[in-house]
Specification:
The structure holds three protein chains of three kinds.
Chain A: H1 2-25, H2 33-40, H3 54-63, H4 75-86, E1 103-107, H5 117-121, E2 127-128, E3 136-137, E4 157-161
Antiparallel strand pairs in A: 1-4, 2-3
Helix pairs in contact in A: 2-3
Chain B: E1 26-27, E2 33-37, E3 47-48, E4 55-56, E5 61-64, E6 73-74, E7 79-88, E8 96-104, H1 123-132, H2 145-148, E9 157-162, H3 171-178, H4 180-194, E10 198-204, H5 208-221, E11 225-230, H6 239-247, E12 262-266, H7 267-278, E13 285-292, E14 298-303, H8 308-315, E15 321-326, E16 333-334, E17 348-353, H9 371-375, H10 382-390, H11 394-399, H12 410-414, H13 421-485, H14 501-520, H15 530-551
Parallel strand pairs in B: 1-14, 9-10, 9-12, 10-11, 13-17
Antiparallel strand pairs in B: 2-8, 3-5, 4-7, 5-6, 7-8, 13-14, 15-16, 15-17
Chain C: H1 13-35, H2 38-60, H3 65-69, H4 73-84, H5 91-107, H6 119-130, H7 132-135, E1 138-139, H8 151-160, H9 169-172, E2 173-174, H10 177-186, H11 191-195, H12 208-224, H13 231-250, H14 258-262, H15 267-274, H16 285-305, H17 312-329
Antiparallel strand pairs in C: 1-2
Classes of the chains: A mainly alpha, B alpha/beta, C mainly alpha.
Chain lengths: 182, 563, 342
C-alpha cells in the first residue's frame, strides 16, 4: 500500500517536472489579446460602444472593463467572434444598440458652408474639403459611423442606406421547409 | 488517332438537344425596343457614352470600358436612346443594373465599320481592336477576349471549345454546322495572335454533323487544324476539363490555362472575332437556343438587348410555362421574368414547366453515401463541403477547396437525399467573399484612422516646434539687446539642444530670468554722472519696449506686431 | 431564388435502403430453411419496434414523420439487429435492442445521417453485454436432427416463454459454431478434432455457413448494382483471410482455416451490410481501406484472443470511432492541386 503511494507520488513528481519544463521551453509568445480583439472589430470608429474608437474598446475588453455586445456595426457575427476569442458566452445586443443597415454619409452641397467641422470629426478622413471650400464625402471610405452628422451646424449631412447591387448581393442560406407553415 | 485523357467523375444527363436542331438558325425579328445592359461581361460596369434622346447608329460605341478589366458595349441597331437607368436584368438576385434602353427606328443603319487585316496586326494591336469591338467570351463566362490573348509563356496549344456539354443548349452545335468557315477563319486570327502551332477543336461526339462540318471547313481552308471528337460526358465543356481531355494537362488551381501554355476559346467567340476583324463589326448579336415548353424550339441569331419574351413568342409560347431559365438546366439561372433582355452571356433560354422540370422532393439529411464524390469533376469532397457550408464553418470549407468548385451541379444531380448542394456552395462562397470584402474595408479604415491620428499628432508637434522656434528667436533677440546695453559681458548663451519644446521653454525662461537678473544689476552703477543716468533711463525705456515686442508674439503665421 | 441544377436524377434514399433490404433476402431465406421460421418473428418484431420508436422520437423532435419513416433506414437497422440475435430470443430482447439502436444510437444523435456509430451494432453490443445468456443460445440447425419446435411452439416460447412439456432450453439450443470452437480449444482439443464435430459442415458451422453464403450472394448483388463500393467488403474479407491464413499456416492445430472465419458468425453480413453503412464509414477511398483493414484485424484478434466468440459488432464500433480522423488524414488531392502537398 505504501509502495503504491510512493509510486504514485513519483509519477506525479516526474510528470510535474516534465510539464514545467515544457511550459518554459516551448512557451509560445502569442499576439497580445488587444490586437486579436481589434482584428475582429469592424473599424468603423463610431464610438457607439462608448469608447473613442475601436482600439480603445479592444483595450477595454481585454482589461475586462467592457462587455462584448457593445458594437452594433460588428453585428451578431462580431459578438460571436469575440465570445469565441475570449471563451465567454455570447450575449445579444441591448435595446439601445441594435445594428442598423450599413449607410454612407451624404453632404447636401447646396447647404454646405465649408466650416470643416465635419472634416475634423471624421475618424477615417473620409471627407474631402477645406475651409470655405465645398466638402464632400468620399463614399468608398465612409464607414457609416455618423460622427459627422452632429457637428454640422447647418444639418446638411444625412445617412443614405446602401442599396443592394448585384455585385454585393449574397446567395441566401437555403431554407428547407420541413412541414408546411401552419 | 490522338490520345485522349479522362477526368474524374462526370454524369450523363439526358441531352434534350434534338428538339432544337431540326431547323436552321433563324434571324430573330427586329424588336421595337432593346435594353442593353452595361454590365454584361466579367469585370467592371461600362460607362455610358450617350445621352437620353441621342440618336445612335448600329454598331456605335455606347458604353466604354472603365478599366483594363471591362468591356465595350455597342448599339445593336440604329435608333434613339430612350432611357439610361436601372433595369431588371438576368441575375440570380433579380436586382437591376444600369442599362441603356434603345428605341429602334427600323432602319438598321450602320455606323462606320473598320475591318482590319489581322496579318498586319501584332498581338497587342489585335487585343486593342477586339477590346474596341467589345468582343467577350461567348461560352458563358463573358471574359474580355483581349485579356485572354495575353500570355507570359508561349502558348503551345490553342483549343477551340465546341463541346457544349450541357443539356438543351445547341447554339454552338448549329453555329458549327452552318458557319464553320467563319469559325475556322476566326480561329486562324486567334492562332496568329497567340502564335500557336497546334490548334484543336474539341467537339463532343453527340454532334456528328458539327464535327463533319468543321472538318470540311478545315479541309477547305488547308489550315493545319485538328478536329477531335471527345466522349460525351458532362461537364466536358468546362475549359479546364476539355484541356485535360485533349492534352492530359491539369490547369493548377488558381492559375490560368496560359500559365501552362494552353488557351481555350469558345467557337462562338471565334465567330465574333472573325466578324470583328474581317467585317469590322462589334459584338452586337449572338446565337441563342430557345427551347423547352415552346411550340418550335430552335436557334435564333438575336440582337443583344432583345427581351426574352419576344424570342419565346417567336417560338410559340405554350401554356404551362411557369418560369424561364437562362442557360442550361445544370448551371443556368432562373430569370426574374421573361422581359429580361438578352445579354452576351445568353446561350440558351428554356421555357420551363413542371412537366419538364418536376419540382424536386424535400431534401433529406446527407447520408454520406459519397455518390457526389464519385461524380465531382474537380475531385472535391462535396458532402464535406455541404456539412461545412450548412454549419457556416467557412474556414474548413476553404480548407476543403471550396473555391475549386466549378458549380457544375453533377453532385446535386446524383444526390439521393435531393440536397441542393450547389446552392449551399454558392451561399458559402458569397459569404466568404463578403467577409473578405468587409475585412479589407475594416483594415483600410483602421489604417486611415491610425494615419489620421498620426497626422494630428504630427500637426501638434509641428505647431509646438514653430512656437518653440519663435520663442527661441525672441530670446536670442532679447539676449542680444541685453548684451548691447550691459557692459558686463553677458553669460554665454547656453547651448540649447533639446527637441522637447517644454524643456526649451523652461530653458529660455531661465535664460531670460538670468539675463534679466544680470541686466538688472549693472556693475557700474556707482558714481554715475547725471548724463549717464539719463542715458540709462533711455536704455531702460528701450529695453521695456523690446520686452513688449517679445511678449506679444500673436499667431504663428503672423509677423510680430511692429509698434 | 432557387439555384441550379434544376434537373436531378438521383436514386432516392428509400430506394437504396430498399435494395439493401432485398439483398438480405437470400440470407434470410436460407436462415429459415436451416433454422426454422422463428427468425421471421424476430424480423417482424424488430421492424415494428423500429418504426414505432422512430415515429415517437420524430414526434418528440418535431420533425415530419412521413419522409423519415418511409426512407427504410429504420427497417434496415431493425433487420440487421434481428439477424444478429438468436432466433428463439424472447420478444423483449429484440424490442430492447431495436429500441436502443433507434432511440439512442440514431435519433439522439440527430437522426438519419448523424449517427457516428452503426445503430444495429450498438443495439447488439448492449444486448450481448446485458443479456449474455439469452444472446448465446442459438437454435440448432434442423439438419442436425434432434428436437425441433414447430412454428406455434416457437411463437409461444418467444412471447410467453413457455416450452412444450418435457423440453428444456438446453435441449433445443446450443452455442454458435464459433463459440463451440473457442470452448473446445480452451479444453485442449485441436482444430482437426473439433472440425469433426457434427455441428460443423464443409466450411464452417452447419447451416450458418449457408446463411453466410446467402448474405454473400446478396452482397455481390449490391456490388454489381453499385449500392456499395468494393473497398470495404474486399479489404475486410481480405484482411480477415490473410490474418487467419498466417496463423493457420503457422499452427494449424490451434488456428482454424481462413474460410472458416469467412463463413462463420457475422463476417459475411458484416462485410457487405454492416461495415458498409455509409453514415458511419469513411468517405474517402483510402479511408475505407484503412477502416476495413482495421475492422478485419480487430475481428480476427477478438475472435481468437479475446473474450467474445464473435466480434464483428465491436470491431465495427471501434472503427466507427476512428472514422473522423481517418477521413481527415486521407483527403485526396484535387484537380489542379496534384503536385502541391496538402
Amino acid at each position: 500500500m505504501i509502495t503504491a503511494l510512493w509510486v504514485m507520488i513519483a509519477i506525479a513528481v516526474v510528470l510535474g517536472v516534465v510539464l514545467g519544463y515544457a511550459a518554459i521551453r516551448f512557451r509560445v509568445e502569442g499576439n497580445p489579446l488587444v490586437e486579436k480583439i481589434d482584428a475582429v472589430l469592424p473599424q468603423t470608429q463610431c464610438g457607439q460602444c462608448g469608447y473613442p474608437g475601436c482600439k480603445p474598446y479592444a483595450e477595454a475588453i481585454a482589461k475586462g472593463e467592457a462587455d462584448i455586445n457593445l458594437c452594433p456595426p460588428g453585428g451578431e457575427e462580431g459578438i460571436h467572434k469575440l465570445a469565441e476569442l475570449l471563451g465567454v458566452e455570447p450575449k445579444p445586443f441591448g435595446a439601445d444598440r441594435q445594428p442598423r443597415a450599413k449607410a454612407v454619409a451624404f453632404i447636401d452641397e447646396k447647404d454646405c458652408i465649408g466650416c470643416t467641422l465635419c472634416i475634423q470629426a471624421c475618424p477615417v478622413d473620409a471627407i474631402a474639403g477645406a475651409a470655405k471650400q465645398m466638402h464632400t464625402i468620399i463614399a468608398a471610405e465612409c464607414t457609416g459611423c455618423e460622427l459627422c452628422v452632429a457637428p454640422c451646424p447647418v444639418d446638411c449631412i444625412s445617412m443614405q442606406p446602401l442599396p443592394e447591387r448585384p455585385n454585393t448581393w449574397k446567395w441566401k442560406y437555403p431554407v428547407i421547409l420541413l412541414r408546411p407553415q401552419k | 488517332m490522338r490520345q485522349l485523357y479522362t477526368f474524374h467523375g462526370g454524369i450523363h444527363p439526358p441531352t434534350n438537344k434534338a428538339q432544337s436542331t431540326t431547323q436552321p438558325i433563324a434571324y430573330a425579328p427586329l424588336p421595337a425596343e432593346l435594353v442593353i445592359s452595361l454590365h454584361q461581361h466579367a469585370g467592371e460596369v461600362a460607362k455610358p457614352l450617350v445621352e437620353v434622346g441621342e440618336r445612335v447608329l448600329k454598331g456605335q460605341l455606347i458604353g466604354a470600358p472603365v478599366s483594363g478589366f471591362s468591356a465595350a458595349i455597342h448599339a445593336p441597331t440604329s435608333g434613339t436612346v430612350a432611357a439610361i437607368g436601372l433595369q431588371i436584368v438576368a441575375h440570380p438576385s433579380s436586382l437591376p443594373e444600369l442599362c441603356i434602353t434603345l428605341q429602334a427606328d427600323g432602319k438598321e443603319e450602320w455606323a462606320a465599320r473598320h475591318p482590319v487585316d489581322f496579318r498586319t496586326l501584332s498581338n497587342a494591336e489585335l487585343q486593342s481592336h477586339l477590346r474596341a469591338q467589345g468582343v467577350v467570351g461567348l461560352g458563358g463566362a463573358v471574359f474580355p477576349s483581349d485579356m485572354k490573348l495575353r500570355h507570359s509563356i508561349p502558348v503551345e496549344t490553342l483549343i477551340m471549345n465546341g463541346a457544349e456539354c450541357e443539356p438543351y443548349i445547341t447554339c454552338d452545335d448549329m453555329l458549327m454546322r452552318e458557319r464553320a468557315a467563319e469559325i475556322v477563319r476566326g480561329t486562324e486570327i486567334l492562332r496568329h495572335a497567340l502564335n500557336t502551332k497546334s490548334v484543336l477543336f474539341g467537339i463532343e461526339d453527340n454532334k456528328p454533323e458539327a464535327i463533319a462540318a468543321m472538318q470540311q471547313a478545315i479541309d477547305d481552308s488547308s489550315l493545319p487544324f485538328e478536329v477531335v471528337a471527345v466522349p460525351t460526358l458532362y461537364p466536358g465543356g468546362s475549359a479546364k476539363h476539355l484541356i485535360k481531355v485533349l492534352t492530359g494537362l491539369e490547369v493548377p488551381s488558381g492559375k490560368l490555362p496560359t500559365d501552362i501554355g494552353v488557351q481555350c476559346f469558345n467557337v462562338g467567340t471565334a465567330y465574333s472575332v472573325k466578324r470583328a476583324c474581317d467585317d469590322g463589326e462589334p459584338l452586337i448579336a449572338r446565337v441563342v437556343t430557345v427551347t423547352g415548353n415552346v411550340a418550335q424550339p430552335r436557334n435564333y441569331e438575336a440582337l443583344i438587348g432583345t427581351r426574352f419574351a419576344e424570342l419565346v413568342s417567336a417560338s410559340g409560347a405554350l401554356p404551362g410555362t411557369d418560369r424561364y431559365i437562362m442557360g442550361g438546366p445544370m448551371m443556368g439561372l432562373e430569370l426574374p421574368g421573361a422581359n429580361v433582355p438578352l445579354v452576351k452571356a445568353s446561350n440558351c433560354l428554356i421555357a420551363a414547366s413542371d412537366a419538364l422540370f418536376p419540382p424536386q422532393p424535400a431534401p433529406l439529411p446527407c447520408i454520406r453515401c459519397t455518390r457526389c464524390v464519385g461524380v465531382c469533376p474537380a475531385e472535391l469532397q462535396p458532402q464535406d463541403l455541404y456539412w461545412f457550408a450548412q454549419s457556416n464553418n467557412f474556414g474548413k470549407a476553404q480548407e476543403w477547396n471550396l473555391f475549386d468548385c466549378i458549380e457544375c451541379g453533377a453532385c446535386a444531380y446524383v444526390c439521393p437525399s435531393s440536397i441542393p448542394l450547389v446552392h449551399y456552395y454558392r451561399y458559402a462562397k458569397s459569404e466568404i467573399r463578403a467577409r473578405d470584402q468587409e475585412k479589407r474595408a475594416a483594415d483600410l479604415a483602421r489604417e486611415r484612422h491610425e494615419f489620421r491620428q498620426l497626422r494630428i499628432e504630427r500637426e501638434k508637434q509641428e505647431k509646438a516646434n514653430r512656437l518653440a522656434q519663435k520663442e527661441r528667436a525672441a530670446t536670442t533677440a532679447n539676449a542680444k539687446t541685453v548684451a548691447e546695453t550691459a557692459s558686463v559681458p553677458t553669460p554665454a548663451k547656453p547651448v540649447v539642444t533639446v527637441d522637447d519644446t517644454q524643456q526649451l521653454r523652461i530653458n529660455t525662461a531661465l535664460e531670460r530670468a538670468k539675463a534679466q537678473a544680470t541686466a538688472a544689476r549693472p556693475k557700474n552703477t556707482d558714481h554715475l554722472t547725471p548724463e549717464q543716468l539719463a542715458e540709462i533711463a533711455a536704455i531702460e525705456a528701450r529695453r521695456s519696449h523690446i520686452h513688449d515686442i517679445a511678449a506679444d508674439t500673436g499667431a504663428d503665421d503672423e509677423p510680430p506686431k511692429q509698434s | 431564388m432557387l439555384s441550379s441544377p434544376f434537373l436531378t436524377r438521383p436514386l432516392p434514399v428509400n430506394q437504396i435502403m430498399l435494395r439493401v433490404l432485398l439483398a438480405l433476402l437470400p440470407g434470410i431465406a436460407l436462415y429459415v430453411w436451416y433454422f426454422g421460421p422463428a427468425i421471421l418473428i424476430s424480423l417482424m418484431l424488430a421492424s415494428l419496434t423500429a418504426l414505432a420508436t422512430e415515429a415517437l422520437m420524430l414526434k418528440l423532435r418535431a420533425r415530419p414523420l412521413k419522409p423519415f419513416l418511409s426512407d427504410n433506414s429504420a427497417l434496415l437497422t431493425a433487420w440487421l439487429l434481428a439477424l444478429s440475435v438468436p432466433p428463439l430470443a424472447p420478444w423483449w430482447l429484440v424490442v430492447i435492442g431495436t429500441a436502443f439502436a433507434i432511440v439512442v444510437a440514431k435519433q439522439l444523435y440527430g437522426g438519419l445521417g448523424n449517427n457516428p456509430f452503426n445503430p444495429a451494432m450498438i443495439g447488439y453490443a448492449v444486448l450481448i453485454i446485458s443479456f449474455p445468456h439469452e444472446m448465446t443460445h442459438w437454435v440448432s440447425p434442423q439438419s442436425l436432427g434432434g428436437v425441433q419446435l414447430s412454428f406455434t411452439e416457437q411463437m409461444s416460447y418467444i412471447f410467453l416463454h413457455t416450452l412444450p412439456p418435457g423440453l428444456t432450453l438446453d435441449a433445443i439450443t446450443m452455442s454458435t459454431p464459433l463459440d463451440t470452437l473457442k470452448t473446445q480449444l480452451h479444453l485442449g482439443h485441436s482444430v482437426g478434432e473439433i472440425r469433426e464435430l457434427p455441428i460443423y459442415g464443409r466450411l464452417a458451422g452447419q447451416g450458418s455457413e449457408m446463411v453466410a453464403a446467402g448474405f454473400a450472394i446478396g452482397g455481390i448483388y449490391l456490388l454489381f448494382t453499385r449500392i456499395i463500393s468494393w473497398h470495404l467488403p474486399l479489404v475486410y474479407l481480405g484482411t480477415l483471410f490473410v490474418m487467419a491464413g498466417i496463423f493457420h499456416l503457422f499452427d494449424p492445430a490451434h488456428y482454424v482455416a481462413p474460410l472458416f472465419h469467412w463463413f462463420s458468425g457475422a463476417a459475411m453480413i458484416g462485410a457487405f451490410f454492416i461495415l458498409t453503412d455509409p453514415i458511419s464509414s469513411p468517405t474517402t477511398a483510402k479511408g475505407k481501406i484503412i477502416f476495413a483493414a482495421g475492422a478485419g484485424m480487430l475481428t480476427y484478434l477478438v475472435r481468437v484472443f479475446g473474450g467474445f466468440p464473435d466480434s464483428v459488432a465491436f470491431a465495427t464500433i471501434l472503427m466507427n470511432m476512428c472514422v473522423p480522423i481517418i477521413d481527415a488524414y486521407t483527403q485526396p488531392a484535387i484537380f489542379g492541386r496534384k503536385d502541391a502537398h496538402k
